[in-house]
Write a structure and sequence with these properties.
Blueprint: H1 3-13, E1 17-22, E2 34-41, H2 44-57, E3 61-64, E4 70-72, E5 77-84, E6 91-93, E7 100-104, H3 109-119, E8 121-122, H4 134-140, E9 143-144, E10 147-148, E11 153-159, E12 165-169, E13 175-176, E14 179-180, E15 187-194, E16 196-197, H5 200-217, H6 237-243, E17 250-251, E18 254-256, E19 264-266, H7 272-290, E20 299-301
Helix pairs in contact: 3-5
Bound molecules: flavin-adenine dinucleotide (FAD).
Length: 304
């Protein structure tokens, strides 16, 4: 990124722009090289201005939620990482045609669950403990147990790469296991979720029970990005990695969690190449022994 582009980005983004930012500070794995620029968008008009400039100049951008499903290469990331703050992190209880909330893409899932619990709106308890944002959860079709966010999405609003704001109802959205088909450059701005009324006390009980279930099962005390691989059909990636004897295996500072084999944890000084080497080891072993190809669930972006 040359000095002229940096100057223009700074003019458009104002105080919300930082340059040469370590992605380790913005991802739950706590690893990754620097991104050329980081922009925290506060509202739609500002975001539109920035996207128009980046698209015109051919500068790549990555929308970042809480960075809980992203692994950025040690060599860093070209272009601009965009975080949705300000008005994108709001939530309101709309109750349009039934119990509904309109949640901004930048809102944390924790705040979504807290808000719904207080208001007596049930349906998102399964998302408690998933450390992402509403936008990231919709983009990834986040789920737990037998529930996925697609089950409560009524509609979403997106900003296209061409600067158009579009509302898309559930029927027009192509969700899949841990993903949603979006066109290149599209940004989820908010989601309307269909919920149901229940007593706050009953909702809270389910939230607490889900937190307990997650604590027992997952290594939540170490930096990681959740499940590394998608579960293959009719099986579990964790079971397969455990069965090939890789639980607890370390490479450098990365370790296949002894608690759950589909989690790779950063024991403190992991590099991205340590994590990628462990992923490769798991994929090779599972393929050789079970003839099953594991597919990463996490998004690996950036260089080297
Ligand atoms: C400890 C731990 C436990 C986890 N448990 C679960 C679990 O139970 N179930 C589960 O499904 N996942 C789980 N995850 C993974 C992760 O939290 C989810 O995938 C989450 O939905 C990602 O949200 P995020 O905001 O962090 O997205 P990010 O990781 O920041 O981004 C993920 C992808 O979504 C895209 N994206 C983000 N926001 C937008 C937007 N507004 N518009 C368009 N694209 C966007 C990004 O570009 C990227 O491609 C876990 C992760 C951790 C660390």
């Amino acid at each position: 990124m040359d000095a002229h582009i940096k100057k223009r980005i700074k003019e458009i983004g104002g105080g919300a722009i930082l340059f040469d930012v370590p992605m380790s500070q913005y991802t739950t794995f706590r690893v990754g090289g620097n991104v050329e620029a980081m922009y925290r968008a506060g509202n739609l008009e500002e975001l539109k201005g920035m996207i128009a400039f980046l698209v015109d100049e051919g500068i790549p951008y990555l929308i970042l939620g809480a960075g809980s499903n992203v692994l950025v290469g040690d060599g860093g990331l070209d272009g601009v990482a965009i975080i949705l703050g300000g008005s994108f992190a709001s939530i309101e209880d709309t109750n349009m045609g039934g119990p509904c909330v309109l949640a901004g893409a930048g809102l944390s899932l924790q705040k979504l669950v807290d808000f719904c619990t207080q208001k007596g709106l049930a349906g998102v308890e399964f998302l408690v403990g998933v450390p992402g944002t509403v936008g990231g959860a919709v983009a990834m079709n986040a789920g737990s147990g037998d529930q996925e966010i697609q089950g409560v999405v009524k509609e979403i609003t997106v900003l296209t790469g061409g600067g158009i704001v579009e509302r898309r109802d559930r029927l027009s959205l192509a969700f899949r296991y841990r993903g949603l088909d979006l066109n290149s450059g599209e940004i989820i701005l908010n989601a309307t979720l269909n919920l149901r009324f229940d007593k706050p006390g009953s909702i809270r009980k389910r939230v607490i029970s889900n937190i307990k279930w997650r604590k027992e099962r997952f290594p939540l005390d170490m930096p990681c990005a959740g499940s590394i691989f998608k579960n293959p059909e009719s099986d579990y990636a964790g079971r397969l990695i455990d069965a090939v004897g890789l639980k607890g295996r370390t490479i450098g500072g990365a370790m296949i969690s002894p608690k759950h084999a589909n989690f790779i944890v950063n024991t403190g000084r992991a590099s991205v190449s340590d994590i990628v080497a462990l992923m490769d080891l798991a994929m090779v072993n599972v393929r050789e022994i079970f003839n099953i190809q594991l597919i990463p669930e996490i998004k690996v972006v950036g260089k080297g």
